[in-house]
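User: Fold this, then the next.

Assistant: Folding the first:
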Amino acid sequence: MASSLFTQSPPTYTIKQRPTSGYRCWQLLWSILLVLAIWNVPQCALADANQQDINGIIRTREMALQALNTRDFSKIEPYLHPTFTITTVDNRVFHKVQDFENYWNQQFSSSIKDIKMTLKVDTPKRFLSPETAVSYGDAIATFYFRDGNSANMAMRWTAVMQKFQGRWTIQSLHFSSNLLNNPVLNGAQQVGRATTVAAGAGGFLLGAVGMLLWHRRRKQPTERV
């Protein structure tokens, strides 16, 4: 009995090693890489947008440009999102087609005869989701004045496109320009100078005619005497 007690094997104990700081760093690094990989999968898929969506965006842009150049805004209305926003170069904000149409027609004053616009798109387009895209680029607005002159205004534009009921629509459209290079203001200043010169010349001629008539009236009584 005593001998059996001495021959029994000692109990075994399992020692659990705690993870070292290096192991934790590697685990955190692999977790971050996994999250980045999962995040970039949709971006890669969106980068390969189908040609049908691209053609739809181009179609919407062409209709917007045609509406501006022809002043027929009934063509663009179906391509505007119900909550659209248009911000012009003078910081005017519009949410209704009729309000923007009235604003645009007011640009054709006594000095401006017509306005034609051309657009250039920067590449690549950015798809934020399968139904949302951002498009931007340069724009040239050519102002035709009634005196026969014309001038170009360089602008930048940014449009947020959203697919609504199967059609790519304009959700937000923003224009910006260099206010120090404003052909409309320069044209108005030139017209103002011409008007001032014409008014001065007309005043001079009127004054000369008035003085001539006054001298003639003074001479008539003297001749009668």
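Now the next one, as you asked:
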Amino acid sequence: MVLKPPTTPQKKESPEDASMKNGLFKEYNTKAPSESSIHRLFSLANKTAIVTGAGAGIGLEVAHALAEAGANVAIWYHSNKEALDRAADIEKAYGVKCRAYQVDVTDEKDVWDSIHSITEEFNGRLDIFVANAGVPWTQGRMIDGETSHYHKVVATDLDSVFYCAKAAGDIWRRQYTSGLTLTGERLDGEGKNYSSGSFIATASMSGHIANIPQLQSAYNAAKAGVIHLARSLSVEWVRFARANSVSPGYMATEISKFVPPETKAIWRQKIPMGREGEARELKGAYLYLASDASSYTTGSDLVVDGGYIAV
């Protein structure tokens, strides 16, 4: 009797690597949703969403939009404890589950642990992640600004997006390869409403242009990085998640409260629509990218700026 040498188990190919062969994409890496009803395509019923920077402003409006469309929503805040009350308001208004969590988005471990524990708490599944947390550059000329301020801006506006994407992507890849939630439930079947992950990063029109009269090179560079990170992830994750960004223009939110009125007057004169946007005017953009209505949209940056970069 001849004994055969033991065979080495073949390592399973990752979805990222399996989407390409010889440097070219394979055909039919994804499939279109079977649904054609626009109401159902925009429905987020049974889906789970996490929104960072959602204690107020853009993030809070996005959380409202996703909840109104049927999603259960976890909202993250840094120091604004009013988020706890806002979560209760959302839950009462839309009849979905909504909780607020204090998370330091610049701490990779806190981000990883929070995303995984929240996903387990919210029916064991993750469908949508909106990386929205951000801070402005407030020190004008780059040469005269403090390096510590640069690190804070980049850590919050770019590094945190990477950390969030890494943790959310880990879950979406697992959901794709196993077909199961983190708690072992099947993701397919009637009423499950699961297709793939949707990662949405809040970038800025500042990732496309150099703003004037205020000087904010570090912020602009960070937001350009966010746009290209999402675009790159759309290729890397094509089998299990879509990745897009939204680039708001000047919005009337608390992030720009430090800006003098005379500077805002110059802004308005540079915007064809002649005004700052309201945070609620972004709700449709985020809902589109979160839902199956955008099933063929990935690697895109949706600019919502009143026409600013058109001139």
